[in-house]
Amino acid sequence: MTIKTGDKIPSLTLKTMGKEGPEDITTDSIFSSKKVVLFAVPGAFTPGCSMTHLPGFVVNADKIKAKGVDTIACLSVNDAFVMGAWGKDQNADEILMLADGNAEFTKACGLEMDGSGFGMGIRCKRMAMIVDDGVVSHFAIEPPGGIVETSAEKMLELL
């Protein structure tokens, strides 16, 4: 079942790239007592994700945070090394780059997509959500090829 507005974010551990290497980060620490904009992409360094989706959040990070958002987070079914390198490549200093390497968060939220035809295996569907104190207050999922309902500009409209 796909996560929806009103649902609580599942409690589990993701990875992020720290100064010494990959570090654990819990969803509870990310979302509890905070307003978070979380968006997910099918893959780091892929064209739509690198040319449109992540850059929109990088450019609009200050505007989004000015609307009371504590954290902007980008999630992908990639490892922490890839997410860290992608964040650096995209100058995403204001974005928390989350690695869901085993697709545990993706599966817990019912957001799996089969990218096997592209040699990518199981990935996360392109989505975005606004989360208030661990509860989803807005959720959008894109149809294949779209980056409209999950864009930074759309999140700004909704905040």
UniProtKB/TrEMBL annotation:
> Which molecular-function annotations from GO does this UniProt entry contain?
thioredoxin peroxidase activity
Stored PANTHER family: PEROXIREDOXIN, PEROXIREDOXIN-5, MITOCHONDRIAL
* Catalytic residues of the enzyme: 49
Summarizing the function annotation, the protein's role is:
Thiol-specific peroxidase that catalyzes the reduction of hydrogen peroxide and organic hydroperoxides to water and alcohols, respectively. Plays a role in cell protection against oxidative stress by detoxifying peroxides.
What is the designated name of this protein? Glutathione-dependent peroxiredoxin
**Pfam families the record matches:** Redoxin
Similarity field:
Belongs to the peroxiredoxin family. Prx5 subfamily.
* Residue ranges constituting the Thioredoxin domain according to the UniProt record: 3-159
Annotated keywords = Antioxidant, Oxidoreductase, Peroxidase, Redox-active center
Classification via InterPro entries: PRX5-like, Redoxin, Thioredoxin-like_sf, Thioredoxin_domain
GO annotation terms (biological process): cell redox homeostasis; cellular response to oxidative stress; hydrogen peroxide catabolic process
- One annotated Gene Ontology cellular component of this protein: cytoplasm
EC number per UniProt: 1.11.1.27
Q: What is the lineage of its organism?
A: Bacteria, Pseudomonadati, Pseudomonadota, Gammaproteobacteria, Litorivivens
Which EC class, in a word?
Answer: oxidoreductase
Reaction(s) catalysed (UniProt annotation): a hydroperoxide + 2 glutathione = an alcohol + glutathione disulfide + H2O
